[in-house]
Write a structure and sequence with these properties.
7-stranded parallel sheet, 16 helices, 379 residues, alpha/beta, 13 strands, 6-stranded parallel sheet, 15% strand, Rossmann fold, single chain, globular
């Protein structure tokens, strides 16, 4: 197949997704305003020059239309509802599969009436929607997508890279001793709804009670400066490491070297880092969002807390710090769920089936991950 992708460039989600198809011999083209090399993929820059934002959007839309007219792909896969989703819709190209990511569904459509209208147009006009949780797909339906065209596809985990193990050298290199209990928060520094400030406040409370507690932050985007200042003000810097963005391979090592993974946002889709933590056998603390509790069951495969609740988060951290058997049991249960549901290859095979069906009808649609069936399965 000749495939065109409209997506965020220089992003690991985009690269892994597209390279799945490029590595299987498909001709792949990426149209993006963040161009950068992707092995096996021809990247097309759709950026524009100066001018007001609406004008730049229109000029980029013209570039998208011209490129698609020249490339004549078999299918367009548009990633991220905001911006790229608008271009995909107004390009008029079909078949168009729209892949949603997170706040493009949960936040942006409700910021003003225009963004809501654009989201509804893009979701109602595409030929299929993929998203990484039942909850985000339900949000798409509320915004106008057809439930029968919605499919849950996870970004997926590479089990060769993310798996349980002892990573003592990495711990030692970062100042963590064998008896320390390492709490790892890897969420982005860019958005307040990731609640890193709440994690820092809870860490202060934990440090007062548990002398073995250590804290690791690796926000993959944004400026760590304000959070470093907050950690200093809270008095936790002596037992904290803020390592910035970690390469994907090293991130896997960091997960395996940690004892507890923390992700407590107020808004989120299924975090890839959550699935990777599950695949690494970490004990997990998540906020009680539907997109997290779809994968983590309270006291079976993790601990679930309300977002922005410092005291409940600190209590969960202290419970895990003091009970190594509980950490082990929760980690093993989470790993079993990840192995059953979250494999990268299995999830991308669903996407391949959707593409092939829309292009030629040669494959059956993956009904088992379709929203109507999932709604029944999850009661």
């Amino acid at each position: 197949m000749r495939l065109a992708f409209l997506s965020i460039g220089r992003h690991i989600h985009t690269e892994r997704w597209i390279r799945y198809f490029a590595d299987r011999g498909h001709e792949c083209h990426l149209l993006t305003v963040q161009p950068g090399p992707v092995p096996g993929v021809e990247v097309h820059d759709i950026t524009t020059g100066a001018g007001p934002k609406p004008w730049r959007y229109l000029v980029s839309l013209g570039k998208v239309r011209r490129l698609l007219g020249g490339l004549r792909p078999d299918l367009l896969n548009t990633h991220f509802l905001t911006g790229y989703g608008y271009w995909g819709h107004f390009s008029g190209f079909h078949p168009n599969v729209l892949t949603v990511w997170g706040d493009d569904v949960y936040v942006t459509p409700f910021e003003n009436p225009l963004k809501g209208w654009l989201a509804r147009r893009a979701l109602s006009g595409c030929d299929a929607v993929t998203g990484d949780s039942v909850d985000i797909l339900a949000g798409c339906v509320r915004l106008g997508a057809a439930a029968g065209k919605c499919y849950r596809v996870l970004w997926g985990v590479d089990f060769e890279r993310f798996h349980p193990g002892q990573e003592q050298q990495w711990r030692a290199d970062h100042g963590f001793g064998p008896g320390d209990v390492v709490f790892f928060s890897p969420r982005s520094y860019t958005q307040p709804y990731y609640n890193i400030d709440t994690v820092i406040a809870a860490a202060r409370a934990v440090m007062d009670v548990e002398p073995r507690a250590r804290f690791l932050f690796s926000g993959y985007e944004g400026d760590p400066g304000p959070f470093r200042e907050a950690a200093a003000a809270a008095g936790i810097l002596p037992v904290t490491r803020m390592v910035g963005r970690l390469p994907h391979d090293e991130f896997a090592v960091a997960l395996r070297a940690s004892d507890v993974f923390i992700s407590v946002p107020s808004v989120d889709a299924t975090a890839v880092s959550l699935l990777e933590a599950m695949a690494s056998g970490c004990a997990i603390i998540v906020s009680n969002l539907a997109s997290a509790t779809e994968w983590v069951t309270q006291r079976t495969s993790g601990l679930v807390v309300p977002p922005r609740d410092r005291d409940t988060l600190a209590a969960a951290m202290l419970e895990l710090a003091g009970d190594v058997d509980l950490r082990r049991r929760l980690g093993e249960a989470a790993l079993a769920v990840a192995r059953r549901e979250a494999g990268f290859e299995a999830n991308m095979a669903h996407v391949d089936g959707i593409f092939r069906h829309l292009v030629s009808g040669e494959d059956s649609l993956p009904r088992g991950v379709g929203l109507p069936a999932l709604q029944v399965d999850h009661g």
